[in-house]
Amino acid sequence: MVAMELKNTFAGDAPPAAVAAAVATDGYAVVRDAVDADTVAAVKADLAPYFEKAHDGHEEFYGKLTKRFGALLAKSTSVQALLVHPTVLAVADDALLPHCVR
């Protein structure tokens, strides 16, 4: 299988505004090397048993070759590092804050 390069792929140090713009326009962005290899290894180790138990996708919309499960924070405390990453927080703010009542 050949890896596909997605158009909205950014370096780990990309400006959060650029990442947020891609998410706003296309609904996604990939930020490479945003966290260190140890964090990636910890998340993979924590979630490996859940990937093994998960069934392949059953609907065309979600992809027949995908495995999905939720409650990641309950399954892996290592996931926290991904959620509090400054770029992730900035993108979430960009998408959500305009719709919040203060």
Can you describe what's shown?
The chain is mostly helical and 102 residues long. It has a domain at 1-34 and 85-102. The chain has 5 helices and 2 strands. α1 links the parallel β1 (9-10) and β2 (30-31). The N and C termini lie far apart (48 Å). The mean pLDDT is 88.
Strand content bin: under 5%
Query: What string, H for helix and E for strand, traces the elements in order?
Result: EHEHHHH
State the helical fraction: 40-55%
* Radius of gyration from the alpha-carbon trace, in angstroms: 15 Å
> Biggest sheet, strands in spatial order?
1-2
Distance separating the two termini? 48 Å
Major beta sheet, specifics?
A: 2 strands, parallel
| Average pLDDT metric | 88
The total of helices stands at: 5
The tally of strands reads: 2
Oligomer: single chain
Low-pLDDT residue intervals, each spanning 5 or more residues? none
Any idea what the shape is?
Answer: globular
- Supply the helix-strand structural class: mainly alpha
